[in-house]
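Lab notes, practical 5.
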Amino acid sequence: MAPPRLTPSAPRRWREPAAPSISPISSPGSPRWRSCIRQTAGSCSTTCSSPGGTSQHRARLAALEEPAQRQWLTLATHLPHGRQSRINEVLIVDPGLSRKRVDLLLRQYYGRSPYWSTLSSVITPVLELMTVSDRTAVIAEASTRLLLELLGWRGSVVHSSAHPARAGRSQRLADLARAVGADTYLCGTGGARYLCSDPFDEYGIDIALFRAPTGEGVWTGARETSALWALATYGPQHLAGLLRDRSAD
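Output from the prediction step:
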């Protein structure tokens, strides 16, 4: 893997994390993972604009028995201020239709899984939430929490808006990491292209570069598809065990 490009110089404390972490900015309590981390490992969100509106690719689904067969779960959304809209301002255009689409696609792809009843227990509350909220940020946070709890995560979610932070991208992230008592900021490969280590060095906060594992079995397509495939194929307990084992290495 090519080293990350950083400005102005490579930091002293870049390292690879021992295990994938899948949560929003949080403070899980464990000293080792008391860090600011992003939801990764197969979760994607891409915005595509068109004259008829805006569509967001929320997750890339892999077929249960043929993981090479993939399809985007796409929702029609409205950006009230165009691309300048904040995350918490993005709205689902037709929540009822979107709810049906999510329900049908997830059942189509994973309804035959032996773990479907367990998956359904976290999918159903998200579908119910879509009947009372049209904000993608609210729904995304709820789905993230439920999946993390399914894997045994017992952390707390902290909203960045609750803490003052400087305007620069790297300065802002460093300020937020410090505000939640983080000792490590887990950075995706996209952020590594612009992240400057100096603000983190000022606070003594490590930066860890995250990439989902590659290989066969549970990690099949982990960098391109939703983690729902691994959950539906191997079950939450097996996946959680693998994550714990990697964390202990």
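Observations recorded by the TA: The CA atoms of residues 35 and 74 lie 31 Å apart. The beta strands are 14-15, 35-36, 46-50, 53-62, 70-78, 91-92, 184-187, 206-209.
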